[in-house]
Amino acid sequence: MTLRVALLGYGLAGRVFHGPLITSEPGLDLAAIVTSNAERRDQAAGDHPDALLLASADDVWDRAKEFDLVVIATANASHVSQATAALEHGLHAVVDKPLAATATEAQALVNLAAAQGRQLHVFQNRRWDSEILTARQAITDGVLGRPHRLESRFERWRPHPKGGWREVGAPDDIPGLLYDLGAHLVDQALHLLGPVERVAASVRILRDGVTGDDDTQVMLWHTEGAISLLSVSAVAAFIEPRLRLLGTRGGLEIIGLDTQEDALREGRLPGDENWGAEPVTHTATIVTADDPSARAYPRQRGNYPAYYAAVAAALQGDGPAPVDARDAVENLRVIEAAALSAAQGVEVRLEPPAGHRFSTGG
Predict the structure, then answer these.
(1) What is the pLDDT of residue 12?
(2) pTM greater than 0.85 (yes/no)
(3) How far apart are CA 184 and CA 335, in angstroms?
(4) What's the CATH code of the domain at 324?
């Protein structure tokens, strides 16, 4: 059985990420695309000529029986209302991150999905980044001993703002890096090192005319004793390494951000022979107590297609969700704690600790 999908939004998220990944999954049919923007409508028609073009989400709700799954790739401010409407109309939903502005709102969506007997999925695709799969493999292999410190960063050098809601949006837009790329880093840290009990953060706006944070650092204390040092910045003139994972018997350093987004922006599709393979300049280097010389460690291929493959399987009753929606609630607890820590200049303790229910490991 092929599941019919309605995609809400055809901006960056809908056009570059969701559209190609949905159409590359045999178990899903991109049946409709919703956008009221004339230029994006033309793009959608060219990219997906077999998809029905609709002007508003209300058109989907009016035809809800024609679809199985709604993918919400609209602006942050619409996530909660559109996910609520999808679930209330009996549709399963995938929601781009962040699921909501607060953990309370996110938990309400989780509760609604359970009450409606529908599945709620959150698009945390960067669990399937090459560097995260590689770090997870090193943990699984046990080559680092007990992991005790993760350093992870999404940093860019953009001293001149480009505009757009991520930089100059209103509060309802949830602008800034903490809720954007920071949501990925928090998810990855909990995914790799487990629950978090304490949070401290610096959340800053450095560029003129920007309303969202553009230089943010978050420190997490995990219940198993490890710490995570996370950084998101638009004003970092030096941006490497992407990740360091240190353990009691070794360390792993990864240079270069996963290139799957670049591939999708270029129009490449999953299924290409080299999909997910990183260039030779994107290295993974390991040092261990048994061999202190720095040497190459196999860098895993990125695998964004695994996300929608798992969504399709879960909707057919053939496997777990790729990302438990309750994990997004826990991520938001950490993000809210980071915002509070920065605002008040204090360390915030989470009671109970914030942790993921399970992880698939890609």
Answers:
(1) 95
(2) yes
(3) 11
(4) 3.30.360.10
